[in-house]
Amino acid sequence: MSDAQGLDAFAALSDPVRAALSERGFTRPTEPQRKAIPPLASGRNALVVAPTGTGKTETAMLPVLSAISERDPTHGIQALYVTPLRALNRDMRERLDWWGGTLDIEVDVRHGDTTDYQRSKQADDPPDVLVTTPETLQAMFTGKKLRRALEDVEHVVVDEVHELAASKRGAQLAIGLEHLREYAGAFQRIGLSATVGDPEEVGRFLTGDRDCAVVETTDAAAIDVRVVEPEVTSEDEVLASELVTDAAVASQVRYIDEVVSENDSTLIFVNTRTTAEGLGSRLKEYGTDVAVHHGSLSKSARIDVEDRLKAGEIDALMCTSSMELGIDVGSIDHVVQYQSPREVARLLQRVGRAGHESGAVSSGTVITTRPDDTFEALAITRMAEEGVVEDAAIHHGSLDTVANQIAGVLMGFGEISARGCYEIVRRAYPYRDLDEATFKDVVRELSANHVLWLEEDHDRLEKSRGTWEYFYNNLSMIPDEQNFRVVDMASGRTVGTLAERFVVNFAAPGEVFIQGGEMWRITNVDEDDEQVKVTPVEDPGGEVPSWTGQEIPVPYDVAQRVGEMRGEAKAALDAGQSVAGVARGMAEEYPTDEHTARRALDPVARHEAAMPTDETVLVEGYGREIVLNAALGHKANETLGRLLSALVGQRTGSSVALETDPYRIEMEVPSGIYIGDVVDLLFDTDPGHVEPLIELSLKNSDALKYTLAQVAAKFGALKGWKSGRGFGRDRLLEALRDTPVYDEALRETLHVDLDAERAAAVLESIRRREVAVETVGERTPVGLAGRSSGQELLSPENADASVIETVKERIENDRMLLYCLHCGDWETKRQVKRISDPPTCPECGSTRIAALNPWADEVVKAIRKPKAERDEEEERMVERAFTAGSLVQGHGKKAVVALAARGVGPRNAARVINKLREDEDDFYRDILAREREYARTNAFWD
Questions:
Q1: Are 454 and 487 in the same domain?
Q2: Where would I find the Helicase C-terminal domain in this sequence (predicted)?
Q3: Rounded to two decimals, what is the model's pTM?
């Protein structure tokens, strides 16, 4: 880029802004600034598509500040900068304050945490530029002074518009911008976006399908990504024992540490918060200077590590998807992606955070952990090179958002004609196809729920007292969702939390999942206390996790590319090439090394049946396990899996266990169902019936009931709803079945959570023989390869030092009831740590003390009863109490500790006490084993 081109871009700006640029040291614009500033300075709507770190904020705001600096001062707000995250608000404030101060333009921030004093000050004396969130913009329509201030808006900048467009938050904002237009008239709209496959569509979303210049500066050649599965060395075998993990994870930790050491500042992206914690802790143990950053951490903790990375006080940040957005953490040299990034857009966004401030190519490393992972990462890097990026998947037509925004419009206007409100909603791009009859159904539902007054004869909507209450309880379209605590029944410690959606959809006694780097089996779900009680899985290698947390779904196109790559590799091997030769070819064609390629090829080379590819589905099975190997991505496989399991269940009257991933549909079917039955269903099921069949299977599902409860809250159908509790979900389903609330819940489940259209298209392709279906009566290496997913960070069974310490601490703090069996005159309740060794009666000096649960007063009463008056149960209680007393008399406080264990009892306590062992930890380890046994079996006891 020449200096002349830079001057041309900056020449479009006002004299005060150009002077400030010189003062700030801006001599040449970045590529986005060079391309976008001229159309923006001319007042055009525009979508700017560019990687994070390329000066997108200044690209949008310099022309806006230029226009404001040349305009006569007004009393109102001239520009809104809307961001999806409050953390971005903080960055915007810091970056815009300098410009505002230099140009004498007032910049302020408003969001949910803004104080009442600041809000009042902004209403009385509005800033020129206001940085805010989509939700707070909605609330601004409710104040008379702020509405007047909004009349002066000339520019709206929407940051991370691609992120918003794919959600109900974006649909809410789209209507909100049309609502704003009612006060301000036409205004300039500027969107800032990461790379997407359909920028023109995102531009239409931003502008309501009005004129929009699309300025793209993303260059796939500007990123340099390597895909590596680290080779396990003898050093890693030693390291594995030190980190209490397996050698493969140790090799990954070592490799990441080497990458971090080679760079000044590194971002390490992972796909889940669980992985962030698990991998982060191992890196810290290894000595890597790394901090962890994800959405479950407190705001102050996140800000602290962001600032520390920016200041160079730490070398690396372990982070999840929130760091994809434009949070300022300074210059990044390199990005590590742990496991496949799942999507092309995500790879570009994440790796794109590196190298921009120095003008260098963005460099990144994807560290893979298994064959699926490697094939997927290589497919994604190749698609990125080709410029094949996923669409933004704009969220169209959500009716609960319409309900929310009808109330929002009424909060602004007080009253409006139904026709006028409908036209405002329809101008928003996600609602351009909304028909008037559906809109009227939504209005009638709101009227029935006392959210508004409807004068149907006069076509009038009026604000009511219920409008106020509803609106302020539903400012956000982010669902109100509780978190369930995950509690280890044995130790009593909180393992972590689970989002309610996962608990409702998946959690049932016996299900297995991963959290905190360990596998857990659910014992009990307590909805009232919002707890999931679990026990550790003692043999992780023999278990398949039923669910592993909120994974990023793999799109259909990525899964298809993986299938294509598998097919090419298998064809080369079948043609006589050696594994080493095919691996060498892969290393030449893709950005990887021969070791990584060989590891990925291993199950393909061992696979003797037909290879599942982009054009072939392989149905395999052994016993009651039937697996469809289908490279269709997460949502299509989940949809097909639900369809097949429902049809099999309907035929047999029995339930079907189902697990899916992007490449497999695994079912455990009832006796009498064979591979041929499933193949028949693939050919015989009418593709046109997929949606109604899935709807039928969903009608009584917890997934639909849960979504229905959330949607009902957004329609005002449930006042003060808390997860549907207190109002049975079955009753809710029946009450709302023929309403727009039910229609919206069904739409969301079918077309957002699932992919009914794609599943139907796949069945159509099978019928037309465009996709082949092959079978094999055994489990195959490729079919079994999914079973290792999600287990990389599991701790071995002996990695229990922290658990043992937790058990000791819990027992020490537990209270016990002590009762003297000799004199019967002394009883007390004390914490275990405050009990003497041996426990001794202060009245008679006896050490024959029964150590009982603190709520065992009925046992003491039974002991004090004459024997002839005791019933059978009381006699058993007395017998157990005397057995406990004998243990305490013989073993002192050690017996008290054993008896304090949960569900152990005197007989098992005696076994624990009498076992020979080398150290105290083994004593507590045996207690823990007894507690776990109790936790596993107590559900079957009376």
A1: no
A2: 251-400
A3: 0.80
